[in-house]
Design a protein that fits this description.
Layout lengths: L3 E5 L5 E11 L3 E6 L4 E6 L5 H20 L4 H5 L7 E5 L2 E7 L31 H7 L8 H20 L3 E2 L7 E4 L4 E4 L5 E2 L17 H5 L15 H17 L14 H11 L39 H13 L10 H12 L2 E3 L9 E3 L18 E9 L7 E8 L5 E2 L1 H4 L18 E6 L2 E6 L6 E2 L4 E2 L5 E3 L5 E3 L7 E9 L1
Helix pairs in contact: 4-6, 4-9, 6-8, 8-9
Length: about 500
């Protein structure tokens, strides 16, 4: 039977755990606390003074900065299982980490399922490739295209917060995120490996497939060589783009049909490093996927001809181009985490439900055609499809298009961040602004918007106010003022009829 170990932590608090290794990572052994609210992870080897100082910064000043000294601290706890303190035991250094939320462990899987079992962590890798998700993940555990967008949004938001604090993740990859496609949740783990300003980053340079090309090109150099490229914000930006692409499309953006070298290691170094080339590059087809070489379990996602990256919509397509064409070998051109966050929020507003009840994706991004159809199952949309085009007036001047749309579906809700462009949907959104301000319904053969909490809503087309509790029909070209205050939006209705 395991013995209980009681230690005094760096902050003076008491840490209790059982001396039985419950899990092992690349460099750490993990022990469970006696009350199972946290784990204690000990490095197997003694760490140097620089790494200890880096860890002290992570559990000290940066933890305080992100979680304690600002009102959004509770929100970030759902994104980061952040190390809270340090301990010493048997000459080794350990860190105390909150236990992962139960939603990041598989549950509800039948005992007869031969692969994933209840209690396993929902490591991002399970949901990143067609081969894994199609062969090993039960259908009811896969989530939807919309929930995967939400997962990516959480990761982008978390990386934006890290970068705002001056930190970088040395190893952002599908192995270091836990996801829950059912709720659209995600958390970024291994936060003890963060790159702290003024301190050398950890010796690890990342996970194959997620390491930035410029880091791979100098991986053989010593860590103190001034020519060596080490993990930093721009290398995170590459890994983040790869992660979002793999979660949404279930294939890797650089894994095409080109063999760069007969030596597997050299081939990988060239594929992800010096010769890295986007498999969907619009003009250079050198690294195109050879669909005939794909296994059955890799289809259809593995074939870009069947599910091209453009199905992710215009906002994400633009950022994928910057990440994998302009910025693949030019770090300064890569999209920031905040740009991904904004694009993902807009893309979530551009999705519509598939009318095929058997469609696994359930949702898809409007393709801006007069005959939209689901790219995942081929189901064409039937009926009227309202689209709201957003406009705003800078300083109450002339209204200008925001290149921002909201797709309408039955019982969809409208929020304050839709009615006013000065309100954002992020960790700072107040409880009041999270309340719906309107909702959409298909009623008696007509689409309508019901006003729930907007005191200034007005039907500009007919020149009449829409009181709270009242409604306005969504007809072609109708102009509706949602909010007349600073940042308030005007919407113009567009109807697709198929």
């Amino acid at each position: 039977m395991a013995n209980k170990v009681t230690l005094k932590a760096s902050d003076g608090s008491t840490v209790e755990f059982y001396d039985e290794i419950k899990a092992q990572g690349g460099v750490k052994d993990v022990y469970f606390s006696t009350d199972k609210t946290y784990v204690v992870a000990f490095y197997r080897k003694q760490i140097n003074a620089n790494d200890k100082a880096r860890l002290e910064n992570i559990v000290g000043v940066y933890r305080a900065k992100i979680f304690i000294q600002n009102p959004e601290g509770e929100y970030w706890k759902s994104i980061f299982p952040w190390p809270t303190k340090m301990v010493e035991w048997k000459g080794l250094t350990g860190i105390v980490i909150p236990f992962y939320d139960k939603k990041f462990f598989f549950s509800g899987i039948a005992d007869t399922w031969p692969f994933i079992k209840n209690g396993q962590e929902k490591n991002g890798k399970w949901f990143s490739s067609a081969k894994l998700i199609n062969r090993f993940v039960p259908t009811e555990q896969k989530g939807t295209f919309l929930s995967r967008l939400h997962m990516c949004l959480k990761i982008a938001r978390g990386m934006r917060r890290l970068h705002a604090a001056g930190l970088a993740h040395s190893d952002l990859s599908y192995n270091n995120v836990l996801v829950d496609p059912l709720s659209g949740s995600a958390c970024i783990i291994d936060d003890d490996g963060l790159v702290v300003p003024g301190k050398f980053p950890p010796e690890v340079v990342g996970t194959p497939g997620f390491i930035a090309p410029e880091v791979l090109a100098t991986k053989a150099l010593k860590v103190d060589d001034p020519k060596k490229n080490l993990p930093k914000r721009t290398t995170d930006q590459h890994a983040l783009a790869v992660l979002i692409y793999t979660f949404l499309l279930n294939r890797h953006p650089l894994d095409g049909g080109k063999v760069w070298d007969i030596d597997p290691q050299k081939d990988d170094d060239m594929r992800y490093g010096s010769n890295a080339l986007f498999i969907e590059h619009p003009t250079d087809k050198t690294n195109r996927v050879k669909a005939g070489q794909l296994g059955k379990s890799e289809l259809p996602q593995g074939d870009p001809d069947k599910l091209p990256y453009t199905i992710c919509g215009p906002y994400l397509k633009k950022l994928f181009d910057r990440a994998f064409i302009d910025g693949l070998h030019n770090p300064s051109a890569r999209p920031t985490a905040q740009e991904w966050e904004v694009a993902l929020v807009k893309t979530c507003d551009l999705v519509q439900p598939c009318q095929n009840p058997k469609c696994e994706a359930h949702w898809y991004v409007f393709d801006n055609t007069t005959k939209p159809k689901c790219p995942f199952c081929g189901q064409e949309y039937k009926g009227q499809l309202p689209i709201l085009n957003f406009y705003y007036a800078p300083s109450h001047g002339k209204y200008m298009s925001e290149n921002y749309r909201l797709m309408v579906y039955d019982k969809q809700t409208l929020y304050k961040w839709h009615s006013n462009n000065l309100v954002s949907a992020n960790e700072k959104t107040s409880a009041e602004d999270k309340k719906p301000v309107g909702d959409f319904h298909f009623h008696n053969g007509q689409w309508i918007l019901i006003n729930r909490r907007l005191p200034d809503m007005k039907d500009i087309t007919e020149g009449k106010d829409i009181p709270i509790g009242g409604y306005v029909p969504l007809t072609e070209g109708r102009q509706i003022l949602l909010d007349k205050s600073q940042g308030g939006r005007l919407v113009v209705v567009q109807l697709v009829k198929n």
